[in-house]
Amino acid sequence: MSISQNLATISQRIQQFTQQTQRPENSVKLLAVSKTKPISAIEQAICAGQRAFGENYVQEGVEKVQYFANQSDLEWHFIGALQSNKTRLVAEHFDWVQTIDRLKIAQRLSEQRPVGKPALNVLLQINISDEASKAGIAPTDMLALATEISQLPNLKLRGLMAIPKPESEPEQQRIALVQMQMLFEQLKCHFKDIDTLSMGMSDDMQVAIECGSTMVRIGTAIFGARNY
Ligand SMILES: *Cc1c(COP(=O)(O)O)cnc(C)c1O
Q1: Which of 53, 82, 97, 217 to mutate to test the pocket of ligand 1 (most atoms within 8 A of CB)?
Q2: Per-residue pLDDT of the chain (228 residues; tens, 9 = 90+)
Q3: What is the DSSP code string of the chain?
Q4: What are the residue boundaries of the structural domains of the chain, listed by start?
Q5: 36 CB less than 6 Å from ligand 1?
Q6: Pocket lining: 220 vs ligand 1, CB cutoff 6 Å
Q7: Nearest residue CA, atom 11 of ligand 1?
């Protein structure tokens, strides 16, 4: 299957699940996760109409952002682990950072955001399955971190992101996704401009959309398996 066919198939599934859940059309956005994939693959996705891309590695991501710099309608999301010594490149080149789980990183991103660029959109990453190995904050820390981040001048807090632990049963998966939905509603009550709940990948996309996801992140099903 070609990249454009894969994109069409996934978009159709997103539309179908959105309709089945009686949510508004186009309320779920597709983030194409292009990490490790070559420029040529991204070009094919762009030709097929895809505009939002997710990257996990700073150097690789920045090279891609720069390569496509003259295409101003693209949206670049940083979705990987971010160390404080790499924040400047991310602040300078990306439009979104989905993996905020420390105030220090957020402060650096805000300080390093270039003058003249719009505020950097950020999501708080929640460790919803409470895995010791996973990044993200505990749900109980959400409002405190959100309060501090909302005061940073060059960041715009837009919502939450999670990578729930994969469960073999969809109903088991639903538990974490429903918790995310409740946290998202709580965040919305306290802050303005909250409109993005990034959750759902290939295997849990349907349940994620039922639970209010506004952005699903898909890599392999668009671009094929990754070779590391
Ligand atoms: C790699 C990655 C994805 C996409 O994973 P696939 O299994 O290739 O669809 C989604 N979200 C995050 C945070 C990722 O790192």
Answers
A1: 217
A2: 899 999 999 999 999 999 999 999 999 999 999 999 999 999 999 999 999 999 999 999 999 999 999 999 999 999 999 999 999 999 999 999 999 999 999 999 999 999 999 999 999 999 999 887 789 999 999 999 999 999 999 999 999 999 999 888 888 899 999 999 999 999 999 999 999 999 999 999 999 999 999 999 999 999 999 987
A3: --HHHHHHHHHHHHHHHHHHTTPPTT-SEEEEE-TT--HHHHHHHHHTT--EEEE--HHHHHHHHHHTTT-TT-EEEE-S---GGGHHHHHHH-SEEEEE--HHHHHHHHHHSPTTSPPEEEEEEE-TT--TTS-SB-GGGHHHHHHHHTT-TTEEEEEEEE-PPP-SSHHHHHHHHHHHHHHHHHHHHH-SS--EEE---TTTHHHHHHTT-SEEEESHHHH-----
A4: 3-223
A5: no
A6: yes
A7: 217
Indicate the CATH number for domain 3-223.
3.20.20.10
Residue nearest to atom 4 of ligand 1 (CA): 219
